[in-house]
Amino acid sequence: MKPLTAVTVWMSCAAAAHAGDLPRSAPETQGLASSAVLAFVEAADSSVDSLHSLMIVRHGQVVAEGWWAPYDADSRHSLYSLSKSFTATAIGIAIAEGKLSLDDPVLKFFPDDAPANPSPNLQGMRISDLLRMSTGHQSEPPRTANESWAKTFLAHPVPFKPGTHFLYNTSATYMLSAIIQQATGETLLDYLTPRLFQPLGIDEPTWEVSPQGVSTGGYGLSVRTGDIARFGQLCLQNGSWEGRQLVPAEWITRATSLQTSNGSNPHSDWDQGYGYQFWRCRHDGYRGDGAFGQFCIVLPEQDAVIAITSGTADMPAVLNLVWKHLLPAFQSEPLPDDAASQARLRERLAALSLPPVEQTASPATTSSRRYEFPENDSKLQAVVLEPSPDGAATTVRIITAGTEAKLNCLPGVWTRDRIAYGQFPEQPLAISGGWTAGNTLTIKMCFIETPFVVTLRLEREGEELRYASETNVGFGPTKRPVLTGR
pTM here? Predict the structure, then answer.
């Protein structure tokens, strides 16, 4: 039998998850030391809370990929503002098809939503101003459930001349999506499906919509880690994919170049300039990024793409680790084979996991207990604890606003389920739980298509149960008030 080479060993251990995926290669074959990737992963595990996935592409080959359990290659992940870069790409395609122009006035597409007497600055606002986050607004127009988002946007004051004042503005990206729908008769998701998603092998993407049925544009797209990597590779290849020009090369160049100055701090990756819904990076790279650490980093000089999903409040820390460990490790020539380092890296990537709850105490109860809660803002009504006869597992029933969430808690592992909980609609999640003190049951709920992990601590004191809830990240307070039931 012919012995396996280092490359075939690597590829057999990291098989492509989806049709149309990029080919796989050992890192050293593409000029990247496995030890550098391992150093990045170990540094991220020790200093960032927490990465969910990583994929590194060099010279068009995936050289490293890993998912922190319970996240996996097959699950979509909410991109938040990384969605903006896909929206800008749709604008570039629509311009190439003759449906739009960069100089088109925004008001042109919304005659029914325009104010009766639009200001000169609003009349002067163009598609290019939306793309560059230079609409002339001093504050971002709100998006509410009861009003047309486009009408609210157009009614918002525009005190600055468009093109002169940078303001990161998710509502501006929504307007780009609405313009696509006005110009093509299709939602942004439907428009991009045959033109971008299908050619790239992006299966079943989802995109949130406004109350008016318009793709939200500035956020709301959910795709897989490999999809992010392929999108980055498309940009690196100037819009070309498998012999087809999906996006005009000129558009990719313009979208990823500096179009607006947005600061002067040489040490900040958020002060290096803004393109068309892409951020410029230090080290002459560019990226799409989204809240809580969703990244598509493109490094043209290194011919590399790095896709990362996360659930972290410290996004700069992630980029700093990329610049420290990965950027200097990209070499212009293949490196000598390093089977030992490759084996260590494969082993580490295969074992990645968010820490499950470990049971360190005996259950505080061996019989079923139900606790009722007084009226509260969380609408929590009751909690039922049902320990297994051997104490190795606990079922927790949480009744909120008349809806029951059943959590099957096992310590030391993540178990998959699909439930609705609190503000989270029904969706896939993974649960881990165990008794971490003589009277405290700790539960982690990882909503695997989002950045969010909810930790519950249920503390028994006599006939009372204290219910504490905390989320790993959020746009507001992450801790809920402690509730007490009897």
Answer: 0.95
